[in-house]
Design brief:
By secondary structure, the protein is of the alpha+beta class. It folds into 3 domains: 2-168, no CATH class; 174-213; 219-439, no CATH class. It has 11 helices and 24 strands. The longest helix is centred in the middle third of the chain and has 37 residues, at 176-212. The protein is globular and about 60 Å long. The model is unreliable at 173-194 and 435-439 (pLDDT under 50).
């Protein structure tokens, strides 16, 4: 199913296959009769459009929803998102659901689907739970399910970048004149050309063999080195990250601002969505909003009584994620130190911290096969009035910010834990794998 959201065409329900050889990827896509496919260099898998999309006329650019989902939550190896399909995207009277899963940091065959009933959703979640085993998975989405973490199509669309871009399948037809010229060149080249070709194939085979011989620890070391260079904002710098939000207009053309959602991905810019809601009985119109907004947003979407405006902010205090990794302590020390930090803030708002999980386990590697303990990561969350976020300046250097969600109300209760603007900060903390308890 192709869904257009915020100007991006997202493909769900792809068929994911493992690559069994290093042959022509376009040929494999043609064999699946898919006009578009997703593949990344050296990837061990690729995705093609489902059968019901093959006969439809598609237009570029087209993004693989599963890959965008993986980009949105890069530190979660096992996850599922369940989203309600917009009413205009399906003729089914009861609607439909997108169920898209990532297993061991890659899309999983049979778990990127569009289904029509809640029963089918439950069956897929049950099957995926069995597949994941003891590590389990994190559930995201916009439906009413126990233990779900709120997420919307906005999260997937914002993460749809060049990495998730699908390629157009090339035709197998060859120009006869070009084919004749190639034949002449090959024949005239004789044994020399064949010898060169053989040497090239032999070298390529050796390279592939060497890559396949890397063990889980080698793959993990390479992945961890790459993750160290990703962008991150330390929790200590939350005030600087919030500066663009403080400067936003709380009302535009009679449309009050109701919610701001900002994600801080590794590309070192903050991507925000602002929701403005029209008051009942008000005189505000789409035209009045656009007149007041001018050109301050990258995109604007009109959905009934809500206007959704998106904007990316650069120049924030991003640093390399390696700085947070270097500041990390042992898991026990962090439970005591960071746990106490959150407990001291309880009078200012609600806080929580999840259990530690392995960080940055790449495709092809298994945590149980590592010869050294991996870096661990845990998600934390703090909800408090806007004015209290200065308290985060005391957070340790191993705590980072992943998301900022601000909700606004015109009827605030001014107490320690409530106000006009409430902020939910979500972030990560990292632990060192070489603490005394791991030796």
């Amino acid at each position: 199913m192709i869904i257009e959201h915020n100007g991006k065409r997202l493909a769900f329900g792809l068929n994911w296959r493992s690559r069994l050889s290093d042959g022509d990827i376009h040929g494999e896509a043609r064999a699946a009769k898919s006009k578009y496919f997703w593949y990344a260099d050296k990837a061990a898998h690729f995705g093609t459009l489902p059968e019901d999309e093959v006969k439809k006329k598609q237009k570029a650019p087209l993004y693989a929803g599963a890959v965008a989902l993986q980009q949105r939550f890069p530190d979660v190896p096992n996850l599922v998102i369940v989203l309600t399909v917009p009413p205009d995207e399906t003729s089914h009277p009861e609607g439909a659901y997108i169920v898209c899963a990532i297993h061991q940091s890659r899309p999983r065959s049979g778990f990127d689907k569009v289904v029509k009933t809640e029963v089918e959703v439950s069956e897929l979640l049950r099957a995926f739970k069995l597949l994941c085993g003891i590590p389990g998975f994190i559930l995201y989405g916009d439906v009413q399910l126990s233990g779900i973490t709120p997420a919307t199509m906005d999260d997937v669309a914002q993460a749809a970048d060049q990495t998730a871009l699908m390629r157009k399948t090339k035709s197998a037809i060859i120009n006869p004149l070009v084919a004749s010229m190639v034949t002449v060149i090959v024949v005239s080249g004789g044994v020399f050309a064949y010898s060169k070709y053989s040497q090239h194939k032999k070298a390529e085979a050796q390279r592939i063999a060497m890559a396949s011989q890397k063990n889980s620890q080698q793959l993990y070391n390479e992945e961890l080195l790459a993750r160290r260079l990703e962008g991150a904002v330390l929790a200590q710098n939350v005030s600087s990250a919030l500066a663009p939000l403080r400067a936003m207009n709380y009302s535009l053309g009679g449309w009050p601002l109701s919610k701001s959602t900002c994600n801080l991905p590794p590309d070192k810019q903050m991507a925000c969505t602002f929701e403005y809601r029209r008051p009942e009985g008000g005189k505000a119109t789409y035209e009045s909003f656009m007149a007041a907004a001018q050109k301050q947003f990258d995109s604007v979407e009109f959905v009934g009584s809500t206007v959704k405006a998106a904007k990316a902010f650069k120049g924030l205090p991003f640093t390399d994620q390696g700085k947070a990794l270097d500041a990390a302590k042992t898991a026990r020390d962090e439970v005591i130190e960071f746990g106490s930090t959150l407990q001291r803030l309880e009078r200012h708002g609600k806080q929580k911290r999840e259990d530690f999980k392995p960080f940055a386990i790449p495709p092809g590697a298994t945590a149980g096969q590592l010869t050294s303990p991996p870096v661990m990561v845990a998600t934390w969350e703090f909800t408090t009035p806007f004015r209290n976020l200065k308290e985060l300046a005391t957070f340790p250097g191993y705590a980072t910010i992943s998301q900022l969600v601000v909700t606004y109300t015109d009827k605030p209760a001014y107490t320690l834990d409530s106000s006009l603007a409430m902020v939910t900060v979500t972030g990560k903390i990292f632990t060192k794998p070489n603490g005394p308890e791991n030796r």
